[in-house]
Amino acid sequence: MVAFRVTRVGTTPFDGQKPGTSGLRKKVKVFTQPHYLQNFVQATFNALGSDKVKGATLVISGDGRYFSKDAIQIITKMAAANGVRRVWVGQHGLMSTPAVSAVVRDRVGANGSKANGAFILTASHNPGGPHEDFGVKYNMENGGPAPEGVTNKIYENTTTIKEYLIAEGLPDADISKTGVSSFEGPDGKFDVDVFDSTIDYVKLMKSIFDFPSIQKLLSSPKFGFCYDALHGVAGYYAKRIFVEELGGKESSLLNCVPKEDFGGGHPDPNLTYAKELVARMGLSKSHSEPNPPEFGAAADGDADRNMILGKRFFVTPSDSVAIIAANAVEAIPYFSGGLKGVARSMPTSAALDVVAKSLNLKFYEVPTGWKFFGNLMDAGMCSICGEESFGTGSDHIREKDGVWAVLAWLSILANKNKDNLGGEKLVSVEDIVRQHWATYGRHYYTRYDYENVDAAGAKELMAHLVKLQSSLDEVNKIIKGIHSDVSSVVHGDEFEYKDPVDSSISKHQGIRYLFEDGSRLVFRLSGTGSEGATIRVYIEQYEKDPSKIGRDSQEALAPLVEVAIKLSKMQEFTGRSAPTVIT
C-alpha cells in the first residue's frame, strides 16, 4: 500500500476569495495561479473544523469544465492531508450538481459510509475553457450549499491564511475507471472511490416518477422529443435516462457529449444561448422548422437549470414551477400524498402565489439562492420551489434539478394524454400552459440582463433607485411622464427576508417597485458572474381578463419595460442602450 506524508506549504492571502450564493467563481487564469485554489480549499477545511473533517467522507466532482481534472487531484491530496478518511469521485470527474446532492444524501459506500459534504467544481451556466470561468462550492451533509455562517467563515479564513496542508507521495487518482484505491497516511487509511454517478441519480428519479407512463408517451409516434445538454454534464445523465431507461431515440439528444469548453458555447439554457434547440423547436427568427417536436428542453453546464419548450412555444420558468405545482399531486407519484408547501425566489413571477392560494398551500417568498429553499425543506415546510433563472426543484434533494424538471413536465404530459395516445391530437405543452392561464390568470414576465457592466456604475444605479423610493409621489410623477397608462406605484422597498426556520435575516435582496394593478419592477445585482457586475431587471404584469391573456409578452410589457429603463437611468449609469440577454 502506497504511503504518503503531509507537507505544510507556506502561503499568503489572495484578495477577493469571497464565495457568493454559489461558491467562488473566477476566471481559470485566476484559479491556476500558484496556491490560489489551495488557499480556498484549506480555508474551507479550517472553517468546517477538524471535528467535521477528520475521518469524513467527501464527494469531489463537477461539471467537467476546463481545470476540473487538475482541481480534483489537488483537492483529493489536500483532503488526505487534512485527515479525511475517503473521497468519492464521479467517473471522469463528472457529477451534476443535483446528482452530488443526491449522492451526499442517499449513497451508502461498500463499507456503510455516508458522505459528510462535497466540493462541487462548477461555474454553473458560465462559459468554460482556458480563458473562461471556473468555480468551487462546498455543500453540507444535507446535500445543500453551505449556509452564510460557513461561507463567511471561509472568507475570513482566506484573509488570514498562512499555510495549507497537502499529501506528498500520493499518486494522482485514475478517475477514468471505477474502483477503490487505498493509501496509508499519518492519520491512517485513505480511500479514493471512483464510481458511476448516474446509478444513484437514476435510482432516485425512478422512485419519484412513473417511468412506464413516460415511456408510453415517448413511444407514441405523435410525440417528438428533443433534449439539449449544451455539452454540459447533463448529457452524461440524458443518455442513461431518456434513451436507456425511457426508450427515447438517441437522435433526440443534442450536444450531449460533455466538453471542457462546452463546445465553445455558453451553457445557459435560454432562448439566446440554446440556439440549436430553439431552431429545432420552431422558435428561431432566422430559421423556419417545418415540423418541430412536441417537447424540447435544455440544461446548463452543471445540469441544475432547465428550459422547457413546446412546439413553437416557450414556457417561462415562473410559469413552469407554477404549472408543476398545480399538477404534481395528480401526475407525479412522489407527491401523491399532497404538497407540504411551495416557494419561489422574490424576483420570480407571482404565478406560483396564485396556485398556492387556490389550492390552499403554504407559500414562501425567499431571496435568490437555493439555500433558502433548503432550510424550508429540511424543516418539512416545502415540497416544490423555483426561480425565474431557469431553476426548478423539490425536496428530493437540496439543489435545483434540471433533469427532474424535464421528467416532471413529461409526467404532466403523460398524465394529460394517458387516454389520448391513440387519438388524433395530443394535449400539447402550449395547451397545458394556456389552460393554466385560463384558470389562474397570466403573469406577463420578462427579465433584462446587463452583463459585465462597470461595478461602480451598477452600484450608483442601485443607490439611485433606493433614493427614489423616499418619495413615491415623485416616482409616480416620473412614471406618468414616461407612460401615462402605466399603473401607480403603491410600495417601494429593498426586499428583506426573515427565515421562518432559523430567524436569520437577509437584507438588501433586491429593489422592488410594486404597482396598484399587481405589476412589479425588481432590480438586482447578481453575484453569479466572474468579473464586472450584472444588473438584472425583472418586469411583471398580471392579467386576469381571459380576453387579454393571449398577447405577445414583450408587446404587453413594452410600457413597463420603458418605465424600468428610464426610471433607473440605465443608459446614464451603465452606458448600455440594450440588455445583453432578454428572457
UniProtKB/TrEMBL annotation:
Domain of life according to the entry: Eukaryota
- GO cellular component terms, semicolon-separated: cytosol
Q: Could you say which cofactors this protein requires? A: Mg(2+)
- Does the entry feature the keyword Phosphoprotein, yes or no? yes
Q: Which SUPFAM superfamilies match?
A: Phosphoglucomutase, C-terminal domain, Phosphoglucomutase, first 3 domains
What chemistry does it catalyse, as a reaction equation?
alpha-D-glucose 1-phosphate = alpha-D-glucose 6-phosphate; alpha-D-glucose 1,6-bisphosphate + L-seryl-[protein] = O-phospho-L-seryl-[protein] + alpha-D-glucose 6-phosphate; O-phospho-L-seryl-[protein] + alpha-D-glucose 1-phosphate = alpha-D-glucose 1,6-bisphosphate + L-seryl-[protein]
The family database entries (InterPro entries) matched by this protein are listed as:
A-D-PHexomutase_a/b/a-I (IPR005844), A-D-PHexomutase_a/b/a-I/II/III (IPR016055), A-D-PHexomutase_a/b/a-II (IPR005845), A-D-PHexomutase_a/b/a-III (IPR005846), A-D-PHexomutase_C_sf (IPR036900), A-D-PHexomutase_CS (IPR016066), Alpha-D-phosphohexomutase_SF (IPR005841), PGM (IPR045244)
* Keywords, ordered alphabetically: Carbohydrate metabolism, Glucose metabolism, Isomerase, Magnesium, Metal-binding, Phosphoprotein
Residue ranges occupied by any Alpha-D-phosphohexomutase alpha/beta/alpha domain in the UniProt entry: 17-164, 200-309, 318-419
**A biological-process GO annotation:** glucose metabolic process
Q: Does the keyword Acyltransferase apply?
A: no
| A Pfam match | PGM_PMM_III
A single Gene Ontology MF term assigned here is: phosphoglucomutase activity
Give the EC number(s) listed in the UniProt record: 5.4.2.2
> Assembly state and interactors?
Monomer.
Summarize the protein's role. Answer: Catalyzes the reversible isomerization of alpha-D-glucose 1-phosphate to alpha-D-glucose 6-phosphate. The mechanism proceeds via the intermediate compound alpha-D-glucose 1,6-bisphosphate. This enzyme participates in both the breakdown and synthesis of glucose.
Similarity section: Belongs to the phosphohexose mutase family.
State what protein this is by name. phosphoglucomutase (alpha-D-glucose-1,6-bisphosphate-dependent)
Give the species. Nicotiana sylvestris (Wood tobacco)
Question: Taxonomically, what lineage is the organism?
Answer: Eukaryota, Viridiplantae, Streptophyta, Embryophyta, Tracheophyta
Gene encoding the protein: LOC104232136
